[in-house]
Design goal:
The chain is of the alpha/beta class. The protein folds into two domains: 129 residues, Periplasmic binding protein-like II (D-Maltodextrin-Binding Protein, domain 2); 106 residues, D-Maltodextrin-Binding Protein, domain 2, CATH 3.40.190.10. The chain is built from nine helices and ten strands. The strands form two sheets. The protein has a five-stranded mixed beta sheet with strand order 2-1-3-10-4, with helices on both faces. It has a five-stranded mixed beta sheet with strand order 7-6-8-5-9. Strand 1, helix 2 and strand 2 form a beta-alpha-beta unit.
């Protein structure tokens, strides 16, 4: 009996050793599945456990010793803070550049650009929390640069993460400021460019450079970290609307 328990514990420890926990910004929720599939073709014995969430929320968890081996943020600020504080073991590196888009489940006239958000027909706008979500911060910046923020801020319905903006725009608001990458998931394919969504002018906001850092000195973590900068991963990010 003792031998069986020992073997079980040994096998469990081996399996656990090959499992890496990664914290991933919500805007990468669609792309990360395809990235995992390609990674498994190279490393079928390494299991990846993904925790999705707003970058600010994940950052706080990491600071409180959450057991993640890798952090893929929606900006560079959070990874840089982790590196400066000694929590991250390497300097942050940009793995993709995100883009903002307008999205509505209804047909929208995008000819007015960002000014369309002022229309009386648009009563509620989904937006990510700018205090914790980099895409929310970029949304506010774009609206302020377009000089319409104060005119429309009473319309805002806030989501804790950028992925929540899609859900709100589908059922609770007239339109949402979302991550362009979220529009490429299988469930979103029925919505059409120029009818249901369009990019926000990139001149209105600071480029959303998304950074990654390693949090543990682990060979399997390093393998996945290196993979997200590979040509194959870049192709996947590009397919999901990221600027590479």
């Amino acid at each position: 009996m003792k031998k069986l328990i020992f073997v079980y514990l040994l096998l469990s420890s081996i399996l656990y050793a090959k499992t890496i926990n990664i914290a991933v910004s919500a805007n990468v929720s669609y792309a990360i599945e395809d990235i995992k599939k390609e990674f498994y073709k190279l490393y079928p014995d390494i299991k990846i456990k993904v925790t999705l969430g707003g970058s600010g929320k994940l950052f706080t968890q990491i600071k409180h010793h959450a057991p993640y081996g890798l952090f893929m943020s929606a900006n560079m600020a959070y990874p840089e803070a982790l590196y400066k504080s000694g929590i991250a073991i390497n300097k942050p590196k940009v793995y993709a550049q995100g883009a903002l888009a307008y999205f509505s489940s209804k047909k929208i006239d995008f000819s007015k650009g960002i000014k369309l958000l002022e229309d009386k027909s648009i009563k509620k706008i989904a937006i990510a929390n700018p205090k914790t979500a980099p895409y929310g911060k970029a949304s506010v910046e774009a609206l302020k640069n377009a000089k319409i923020y104060n005119k429309i801020k009473k319309k805002f319905v806030y989501s804790e993460s950028i992925s929540g903006c899609i859900s709100y725009a589908l059922v609770a608001t007239d339109i949402g400021l979302v991550a362009k990458s979220s529009l490429f998931g299988k469930k979103m394919l029925r919505y059409k460019y120029g009818i249901n969504y369009k990019e926000v002018d990139i001149k209105l906001y600071t480029p959303i450079k998304q950074g990654a850092v390693m949090l543990k000195d682990n060979k399997n973590v390093k393998k996945f970290y290196n993979f997200i900068f590979s040509n194959k991963a870049k192709q996947i990010f590009k397919q999901y609307g990221y600027l590479i």
